[in-house]
Design brief:
Elements: E1 13-16, H1 39-45, E2 51-54, E3 71-72, H2 74-81, E4 86-92, H3 107-112, E5 113-119, H4 121-130, E6 138-139, E7 142-148, H5 155-164, H6 166-169, E8 175-179, E9 183-185, H7 189-198, E10 204-208, H8 215-224, H9 230-243, E11 260-268, H10 271-286, H11 291-306, E12 311-313, H12 315-318, E13 322-324, H13 328-337, H14 360-364, H15 368-371
Parallel strand pairs: 1-2, 4-5, 4-8, 5-7, 10-12
Antiparallel strand pairs: 3-7, 6-7, 8-11, 9-13, 10-11
Length: 379
């Protein structure tokens, strides 16, 4: 691990907006959790300067996780503040996925890396039934943290909070690795950080989509798969188009893609990468929860002011360190579709009444010069 934090271009001091009395009279979008920033405030947040104060979730209450929505027990918050190095985090809401234990983790990482799984009450109950949740609040490597008073009715949208705002939940952590609840970690976290951040002198890394590179194509694919209502997707893409979003082409090189595969995020918690995830979260809070649609808009607007860039690596490289499992509902459906078990064959008849016959495989193994001595019996 590097001894000192990486350089943060332009931005040095980042603070966050707290609003006890929210003004909902904004142009459109926003929430009680993320606030209701006006379009003027949104534009101002992309004017990168040395000191900034921006919306970044948790706009109410004294600190993240305390009377802000996505509330966390004080004992857990105190434990999370003690994480000063690397945090690996994931989340399961609505008992949507099976909890998967990391594999191939070194003893050093077991002792120094913070592994946190965020869940809701439903998932907690499910884990208690399946695994038994003890006083230590740990199941395997994962420390289980229950989030109360969830701000959104949709579990996927609630999952965006720890996904993008880990720097707010773990104020003293230096690095983080986020993996979606459907993923199982197969490689030691320090190896992943070395490969995608430290070796590249990067502070943010994410894999690009395995098929699509273009936001407009991604939007159509989301509509075809009914990932979100079509009118909201069209509204968001049209909004970005008016701001200057264009289809991906080779003219954008060295940018290799406008669409990430957002299930794993590797980052260093320095001001510029923290700002990037704050602004990305704000777009998700204002528009649809499909984070692939807003990624390139935020990335390019931040890069235009700072020359800061995301390390976008191949998705096959991502699949070298995590493996994807089916959601619980899909697993249940596959179990129902499984073919019935085949009964074992009847035992062979007595050898006395049925002398052994040479199989075709045995015949094939006989050398060619002796094969002519064998005679195939009648049926």
């Amino acid at each position: 691990m590097p001894k000192v934090p990486s350089f943060s271009p332009v931005l040095k001091n980042l603070t966050y907006i707290y609003e006890e009395n929210l003004n909902k009279e904004t142009e459109f979008g926003g929430s009680n959790f993320g606030g209701y920033p006006t379009l003027k405030q949104r534009d101002d947040s992309y004017d990168i300067r040395e000191s900034m104060n921006v919306h970044c979730g948790f706009v109410k209450g004294t600190k993240p996780g305390h009377e802000t929505g996505f509330d966390i027990d004080n004992s857990d918050l105190l434990e999370m503040e003690q994480c000063h190095g690397v945090v690996v985090a994931s989340a399961i809401f609505g008992a949507f996925d099976n909890m998967l234990q990391p594999k191939n983790i070194s003893k050093y990482s077991e002792q120094t890396v913070c592994f946190y799984m965020f869940v809701d009450e439903e998932t907690k109950s499910d884990l208690e039934t399946e695994h038994g949740l003890i006083e230590s609040k740990k199941i395997g490597l994962w420390r289980i943290v229950v989030a109360h008073n969830l701000p959104y009715t949709n579990g996927r949208r609630n999952g965006k909070i720890p996904k993008f705002l880990l720097h707010r939940l773990f104020p003293n952590a230096r690095f983080s690795l986020w993996i979606d609840g459907k993923l199982q970690l197969l490689v030691d976290p320090y190896q992943i950080l070395e490969r995608f951040l430290w070796r590249k002198n990067a502070t943010f890394a994410i894999s690009r989509h395995y098929i699509r590179f273009d936001v407009f194509e991604e939007a159509e694919a989301n509509k075809a798969a009914h990932k979100y209502d079509n009118a909201s997707i069209d509204f968001q893409v049209d909004f970005y188009k008016k701001e200057g979003l264009t289809p991906y082409s080779e003219a954008k090189l060295p940018i290799t893609s406008d669409v990430p595969e957002g299930c794993a995020i590797i980052r260093e918690h320095v001001p510029i990468s923290n700002l990037f995830t704050c602004l990305w979260f704000n777009e998700i809070d204002r528009f649809t929860s499909r984070d692939q649609l807003s990624f390139s808009t935020v990335r390019d607007r931040v890069a235009a002011k700072t020359n800061w860039m995301v390390n976008m690596f191949l998705d096959c490289e991502r699949r070298n360190f995590v493996v994807q499992q089916h959601h619980k509902g899909v697993l249940a459906m596959l179990a129902q579709m499984a073919p019935p078990a085949i009964s074992p064959p009847p035992p062979p008849l007595s050898l006395a009444n049925n002398p052994p016959r040479t199989s075709s495989l045995e015949i094939a193994s006989v050398s060619p010069k002796h094969r002519r001595d064998w005679r195939v019996g009648s049926r």
